[in-house]
Amino acid sequence: MRLLLVEDEKRMAQALCEILRLEKYEVDYCSDGLSGLEAAESDIYDIIILDVMLPGMNGYEIARRARQNGIRTPILMLTAKAGLDDKVTGLDSGADDYLTKPFMTKELLARLRALGRRKNNSIDGTLSYGDILLDTGTLTLSCVTNGQSVRLSEKEYRILEYMIANKGQILTREQLALKIWGFDSEAEYNNVEVYMSFTRKKLAFVEAKTEIKAARGIGYELRCGDV
Ligand code: CA
Questions:
Q1: What region, left, alpha or beta, does residue 135 occupy, with left being phi > 0 and alpha being psi -120 to 50 degrees?
Q2: Quick one: pLDDT band at residue 122, thresholds 50, 70, 90?
Q3: From the CB of residue 137, how many other CB atoms can be counted at a distance below 10 Å?
Q4: pLDDT for 172-206, tens place per residue?
Q5: Ligand 1 centre from 181 Cα, in Å?
Q6: Which of 84, 103, 217, 226 is the most buried (most CB within 10 A)?
Q7: Contact, 47 vs 28, CB < 8 A?
Q8: Ligand 1: centre distance to CA 8 (Å)
Q9: What's the 25 CA to ligand 1 centre distance in angstroms?
Q10: Angle at 109 (CA atoms; ends 178, 37), nearest 5 degrees
């Protein structure tokens, strides 16, 4: 999962980035409102963590504008204020959840997991498509018809997660590079090809009928075969 953290207090931001990376999240960080809004609108994030009081533009305004521009990424607001009005303002501006500072790391991580599940429409921590099942906690891929399973690397997992979220659509190399690696460039396009081949091998290993089809010169599509 790729997170965007918008927080202007440097020490707080550094501590959070460290904790989140230890939890295997990929984290990008912005320290002011305008760059935060721009990053949020790139639509490459799975969850956005937004501080309220920020230079340039506050968190409420970022959430409001992102929602107006069609960004549906789950937003967790971090607020130093605990008043009911602030919570209501946060939720009304488009945030999905809020956390009052100071907070416990444990609670932050639990809320991120909940938002991640909501994003994937997964209640039990799994994602499925065709005959494959992904365990979002252990990053295990299994084939439901034969019970075979294999561990995925983090990138392989994110590729399948992204493809399941966009089933039935062709995803371009550019979209995949941007989503999985964070920006697109020739180097990232090579990564996409390499990791697509790794991911296909994992699908073949569990003998899944679901497969990654290449759309010539365009990109890739997840197909569930004849299940
Ligand atoms: Ca702040």
A1: beta
A2: low
A3: 9
A4: 998 899 888 877 777 778 889 999 999 999 999 99
A5: 28
A6: 103
A7: no
A8: 5
A9: 22
A10: 40
